[in-house]
Amino acid sequence: MSLEKFLQNALSSWMNHEGPESDIVLSSRVRLARNFKDYTFPTLFSHEEAKSILELIKKRLESEVNSEIGQLEMIEMEQLQALEKRVLVEKHLISPKLVDESTHGACLLSDDEVISVMINEEDHVRIQCLMSGLQLEKALQLANILDDWLEEAIDYAYDEERGYLTSCPTNVGTGLRASVMMHLPGLVLTQQINKIIPAINQLGLVVRGMYGEGSQALGNIFQISNQITLGKSEKDIVEDLTSVVQQIIAQERAAREALVKTSNIQLEDRVFRSYGILSNARIIETKEASTCISDVRLGIDLGYIQNISESILNELMILTQPGFLQKYAGGPLRPYERDMRRAALIRERLNLDTKEHS
């Protein structure tokens, strides 16, 4: 398969659109956790109940198409190969839990993959909306439309005092998890990030790596999300997170300006060394690739590099993950083979952009 065709098939279409503040905010995500009334939660339910929940969702899909949501396709986990599941995880469309632990697990996907609804994961339903840049309010609006569409036909487990009831107590209330993926090389290079993370935590937010809880912040990419779901409205949660993110954006821009002012030649050298590695390496591991890709994206944002698209960071951070590399290769790869394939794919991707902009 050619890289051009692979890119068309592999990348979510929203990744190709530049959203607000997209030089720093790579994506916004809103997720709503919901359970159905009179059904046991997934932590304890039977295979029969899990199958029944799946049938309820299928009936809702067949009964009506909401014009604001569009057509959704159901994908059942048992119908997918292991590599296909891994790719969906790497694209943030489903969770590892849906792959490894769910009973009669499935997901609903929109054509542009902005909408992903996990079924029979930790909760009966987890509605997710993904958008480029800082668009939390827009993502929440779409998630609420889908939430209302489901609730028209299915009664949720809801308590007047506690709100929506969920398998994990930390999600009780709104059931809302809002998060943004941010590229923060300026704050990392100036070592300000070590002070900022504790301050963010004190505001009731949490900072994680690219793939959420337990993951490392490779490539200077950090995921920032709310911890509190009870006692605040969905609107307040999103507004508070947006406010904090805007402050971090301002600090990141200030850090980049300071680096250009005080260490311009050293920064430019770092950017082009990383570009040289990506353009010529024959073997490259995930961590080194992530660091070099981050440097190159910073160089694009600062105007050092002119002939590469800004979406390169979003694309390569996904495309160089193990699942995608093996999908592109057409089968399983051993670790050193993945490192070789990663280097080849990056070289080919950079060459495509250079041709397009020459």
Describe the structure.
The protein is of the alpha+beta class. It has two domains: 3-173, Creatine Kinase, Chain A, domain 2, CATH 3.30.590; 263-357. The protein is built from twelve helices and ten strands. The protein has helices spanning 3-10, 47-63, 82-90, 96-100, 136-151, 185-189, 193-202, 234-280, 286-301, 312-319, 322-329, 335-357, and strands spanning 25-34, 72-76, 106-110, 115-119, 125-132, 158-159, 163-164, 176-183, 205-208, 221-226. Strands 2-3-4-5-1-8-10-9 form an eight-stranded antiparallel β-sheet, with helices on one face. The protein is globular. The mean pLDDT is 89. Its EC number is 2.7.14.1.
Give the arrangement of secondary structure elements.
Elements: H1 3-10, E1 25-34, H2 47-63, E2 72-76, H3 82-90, H4 96-100, E3 106-110, E4 115-119, E5 125-132, H5 136-151, E6 158-159, E7 163-164, E8 176-183, H6 185-189, H7 193-202, E9 205-208, E10 221-226, H8 234-280, H9 286-301, H10 312-319, H11 322-329, H12 335-357
Antiparallel strand pairs: 1-5, 1-8, 2-3, 3-4, 4-5, 6-7, 8-10, 9-10
Helix pairs in contact: 3-11, 8-9, 9-10, 11-12
